[in-house]
Structure formats: C-alpha cells, structure tokens
Amino acid sequence: MGDHPSRRGRTANELTDQIFEPPLKTEILRDEIYCQIIKQLTDNRNDTSERRGWELMWLATGCFTPSTNLTREVLQFLRSRRNQISTDCVNRMQKTQKNGTRKYPPHQVEVEAIQHKTTQILHKVYFPDDTDEAFEVESSTRAKDFCHNIANKLMLKSSEGFSLFVKIADKVISVPEGDFFFDFVRHLTDWIRKARPTRDGSVPSFTYQVFFMKKLWTNTVPGKDSYADQIFHYHQELPKLLRGYHKCGKEEAAQLGALIYRVKCGDNKSGLANIPRMLRELIPSDLVKASSPDDWKRHIIGYYNKNAGMSSEEAKVEFLRIIYKWPTFGSAFFEVKQTTEPNYPEILLIAINKHGVNLIHPSTKEILATHPFTKISNWSSGNTYFHMTIGNLVRGSKLLCETSLGYKMDDLLTSYISLMLTSMNKQKSVKK
Q: Which residue intervals define the domain FERM in the entry (predicted)?
C-alpha cells in the first residue's frame, strides 16, 4: 500500500504473490490478510494508500473468503463503505463462497485490471473461422462456465465436446473444465517460465492467446447444429483433409475440392481458371500429383456446376457430410515414430477419435488397427514420448511412440474416456 518505504522497485505481481501465496497454502492466514487490509483501510488519510488497499481487498475477495466467524464482520465492513469497489467486493466474495478457493495468486491480467480501475475483465477468444470476440471473465470463472458463456453467445446448441485452449510459446494446451480460468493460465505461464529461463536471469514475459474449439467429436453429426458447422466443424476438418491425413479417392477429392472452392468464392466463376494454381488449397496434399492440374480443374468444375445455386453455408455442411462417412472423421492426427511393433511401419499416423486410437499407415492411409477406449488399460506421456498399453496390464501389447505431442495425446485419451464413463453412468442411473 506504500505505507512502508521499499528499497527497490518491484512489479505489482511480485507484491501480490508475496501477499496471497501464503494464505492460499495455509487457511489460517486468510483471516489475517482480511484483518490487516481492513485495519489499514480504517481512518486512512492517505488517498494513494487507501486506493491500493481497496485494490488488495478486491483481489482478496476473488481468491478466498475469510472463516465463517469473520465473514459477517468483513461483509459488514464492506457494506458500510460507500464506493463502487466495496460493492463489487461483496459480489466477488459471494461468488468465491459459491465457487470455491483459487489455487494460485491473482493473474497479472487481474492485477492490471483493478490498477486501471476496471472491475470488468474482457478477454479476447479466437475461433477456427478466423473471427474473435471478447467475453467477460471473472476471478471465479471456471473453464466449464466460460465454455457455456461462449456457446450461448454464439447460439450453439450445446457446449459438449468444446474446450478452451491456451496457446503459449510453441504449445497449445486444453484447459481442464473444472479449473479456474485464471489459475490455469497462471500455472501455465509459471511452468513455461521455469522450463525456459533467460540467460541474464530476468523474468521472461509470455503472451498467450485463448482459442475455443471442438475437442471431442463423440456426438457430432453434420447438419445438427448449423452454427457449430459454420464456425467450427468445417474450419477444423478442412486442414486435416488438405494435409492428406484421410484415405480419400480421386473422385471424392474432386467433389470436396468443388465444395471448398464454393465456400471460398460462392457463385463467382471468374476464379475457376485459377484452379490449377489453387490445388494446394483444394485437394489433399498426397493426391495433388495423382492427376495433372488440368484434369483436376476439369473434375472440380464438373462437380462445381452440379452444385449450382448452393450457398457457401450449404457447401460447408455438404463437405462435412462426405467426410462424416469416413472412419477418421473428427480425428486428431499425430505423426509418430514407433519401435515396439515390428509389423507396423516405423513412422506411424495415429488418429484419436470417438472410435478409439487408430493406427494408420502413413502412405496408404489404411487403418492397421483400431483400439477402442474400453481396451486401453494404461497410458502415459513425457516431453519426447507417448506410451500406451492395450489389454491386460501384464500380458497386453504395448505401444511406445516418439513424439513431442505426447501431452496432447494423453489429454485427448483422458478426455474421451472421461466422457465415455460419464455417459455410461448416466445410462445406468436412467435404467435404475
């Protein structure tokens, strides 16, 4: 609060960490923090000190509540003060009582918000169709609530299967739905900082971006939710097709190419002559050289003309309906190196989807094996590997993969299995 002179300048977060880390770890200190802040806010004639005291009170009420014995006194104190922040502190304290205690001290975004006298934090969220929107996030917002808010605002039929992802440094990590949003981002930035120290010992700053995307495709049916198809499903499936991950015939590729062109250009035929130069944007990369550019052009235009009058929105759904028939629809694909199974190629394509873990030949795109989630008994991951046991823990077969994306495979497997168990439990309770 500036009442005690400090010898060196420190960042706001250094100070708030020092104040809030101990009470978050030791419950008995929480009352002490509230008592000290109230004491320093009582008859304080220094405007700067008082302003900072209210900033601390605002941050405290979003992190933890005092004990039952002290709660009434703190609320009485807050209600006796006539300012906007005290009213906001009462609301924050009630939300913290309802939603639970945070694990980490306030995030930099929260500290900066109250220092700039704003009690409303708006966070930008990016979507797969290259649009973005700002959403209000509170200290007590858990990832699940955040997902619901986004789904409601975008008028999606359900938020099931959707997740928030945080992109930081070179990683994109899914936010567990039960975590407080700011806790997770705080944990992530601290982890990256420790993993990548700077040479001069200074604290590196990491910017992050938040994405909202479809993660689990268990109940995804094209045409069932038009907004989800337009904003998410089409734009998330398109890159996988173009990278050549699916097994796709030349006819289907031309058909899909015509739909992709229609999404891009609608009924505008003036660009059709450019198709040979656009092939990488229309045809799977492994099939581009399977026909001459002029052959592709002829085929694509043929299908394009058949779809005359179709809107670009309808073309997106039609595109999804074709891919939906494939066993690899809605997959997350991983190129890995495996050494445990001599019958499989060393470089393997793994697709994780609603059917389980699929092992795919990277050249022919044939599915070599599908391991349903019910048969996977154990899995683990590290910085350079992903390990999985199929069947019995002792006599089952093992698959060890070299990959830097083990954390993503691990998380997907955990999430799909968790969703499967939840729906099984729901079915059981319905039968009862």
A: 121-424
